[in-house]
């Protein structure tokens, strides 16, 4: 149990450090470095939460990485469409255009669900049921943790700006 807490504390420390180090990078390079660091922290977090055996890890990570790539692809498309939709005033478009946009949102959401369903089947082949459930919980918990960190960093920056 002490090992799990130590790993968790190290993961948190690495995340905070990665945010600090990423501030020294520039532009697109900064985003890439930050994304890579977050991804490595996510891997450490999931590994710790799932307590994967060597065999499970060997089978799981290639599937998870593939899932992550596919999921990111469809989520980006969904977000892009949503951003475009937000720039449209529903009052100024035709009913057909409004219906097409609404239908497209459902289609995009279904694509995200299809990816999750496909990889859920793949995960079931390599993980026992309890670890599969832990995977989904770990993903949610990591997102919450990351959002909390981002919020705290924004608040800190805002406070620092106000002090100047």
Give an account of the 3D structure:
This protein is an all-alpha fold. The protein folds into 2 domains: 1-51 and 133-164, no CATH class; 52-127. It has 5 helices and no strands. It has helices at residues 2-22, 27-50, 54-86, 95-126, 129-163. The protein is flat and about 55 Å long. The N and C termini lie far apart (44 Å). The relative contact order is 0.10.
* Overall mean pLDDT: 84
Query: What is the chain-wise order of helices and strands?
Result: HHHHH
Shape: flat
- What's the story with the biggest beta sheet? none
- Regions with little confidence, pLDDT below 50 for 5+ residues: 21-25
Topology:
Blueprint (H helix, E strand, L loop, with lengths): L1 H21 L4 H24 L3 H33 L8 H32 L2 H35 L1
Helix pairs in contact: 1-2, 2-5, 3-4
């Amino acid at each position: 149990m002490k090992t799990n807490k130590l790993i968790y504390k190290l993961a948190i420390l690495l995340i905070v450090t990665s945010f600090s180090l990423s501030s020294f990078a520039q532009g697109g390079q900064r985003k890439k470095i930050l994304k890579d660091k977050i991804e490595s922290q996510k891997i450490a977090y999931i590994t710790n939460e799932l307590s994967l055996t060597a065999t499970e890890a060997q089978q799981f990570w290639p599937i998870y990485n593939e899932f992550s790539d596919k999921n990111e692809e469809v989520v980006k498309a969904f977000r892009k469409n949503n951003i475009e939709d937000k720039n449209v005033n529903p009052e100024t478009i035709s009913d057909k255009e409004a219906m097409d946009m609404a239908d497209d949102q459902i289609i995009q959401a279904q694509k995200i669900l299809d990816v999750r369903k496909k990889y859920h089947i793949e995960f079931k082949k390599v993980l026992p049921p309890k670890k599969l459930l832990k995977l989904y919980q770990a993903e949610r918990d990591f997102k919450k943790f990351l959002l909390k960190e981002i919020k705290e960093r924004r608040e800190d920056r805002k406070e620092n700006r106000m002090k100047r």
